[in-house]
Write a structure and sequence with these properties.
Layout lengths: L2 H9 L4 H8 L12 H12 L5 H11 L7 E2 L6 E7 L10 E4 L7 H6 L18 H4 L2 E2 L2 H16 L15 E2 L20 H8 L27 H15 L21
Antiparallel strand pairs: 1-2, 2-3, 4-5
Helix pairs in contact: 1-2, 1-4
Length: 264
């Protein structure tokens, strides 16, 4: 429920007292609900009255959002980012777009295996495939079917049929792991102290008793913001602060540049 939705309800003749109560409730405005029943219950609690069937239908239709996200999963689609209605003008047929998947780790090879599809041979070696320079490619039917199955599992339950998700109007995919960028991924292994690794990797010589060398390692891989350049800047800033005596640019009490040491 947003303030814009409340304004739309007011113009549609929804009861002013109900709108005022919802606007003043922190449990209603800008608070997403996973089910319609929970949302209706919260609204009725705020207005201290029961809604009629017609009022429920009006409220649910107005409050329905198609651009909430991203959805983060442990399935091969990993993340689903919603772009809302992309129709060219108001009143035109809605056209919704989403990014699925924003993928990483071991799941990149999951989708790479679906690029060819059955009964097809690879014509260009992976080492010579310059797709990042050529641009996005159209997804083959087998990839689209798997995508629909994954989206159905995320949004309607793990046993949902792929047909619960309508066929897309258009699909494109990009594999950044291909040349010339050869993008990769990294992840912390189990049973390692992440904070300890972030602290010590910056100056590897401190891992050896009695050794001291001004060789430093910085980058997003060992930061609180993996995969983002912000993490690289943060690790570099922490090295300047802790090893070169440079004062922090900002007060990092509530924004630690790297994971604080557990031993301090």
């Amino acid at each position: 429920m947003t303030l814009r939705v409340l304004d739309a309800l007011a113009k549609a003749g929804f009861r002013a007292a109900y709108i005022a109560a919802m606007k003043n409730s922190t449990a209603i405005v800008e608070t997403p609900y996973a089910s319609a029943s929970d949302f209706i219950h919260a609204v009725e609690h705020a207005i201290q009255e029961r809604l009629t069937v017609k009022q429920e239908e009006q409220l649910l239709a107005a409050a329905k959002r198609n651009s909430i996200g991203p959805s983060v999963t442990d399935t091969p689609i990993r993340q689903v980012v919603y772009f809302g209605n992309n129709a060219r003008g108001e009143g035109q047929k809605p056209v919704f777009g989403l990014l699925a998947s924003y993928d990483d780790e071991m799941y990149t090879s999951f989708w790479q295996d679906l690029k060819l599809g059955p009964d097809r041979e690879r014509k260009i070696p992976i080492s010579d495939d310059m797709q990042p320079l050529d641009g996005p490619r159209e997804a083959p039917p087998i990839m689209v079917k798997m995508l629909r199955a994954q989206l159905a599992a995320v949004h309607f339950g793990p046993q949902s049929d792929y047909t619960a998700v309508p066929p897309p109007l258009e699909t494109r995919y990009m594999d950044w792991s291909l040349p010339p960028f050869n993008a990769g991924y990294h992840a912390y292994a189990s049973h390692y102290n992440v904070c300890d690794v972030q602290q010590k990797i910056r100056k590897p010589s401190q891992l050896i008793d009695g050794a001291d060398a001004d060789i430093f390692i910085v980058g997003e891989a060992y930061s609180n913001d993996q995969a983002w350049v912000e993490g690289a800047f943060c690790t570099a800033e922490s090295v300047l602060n802790d090893f070169f005596g440079v004062a922090p640019i900002i007060d990092n009490a509530n924004y630690p540049f790297i994971c604080p040491s557990r031993t301090k």
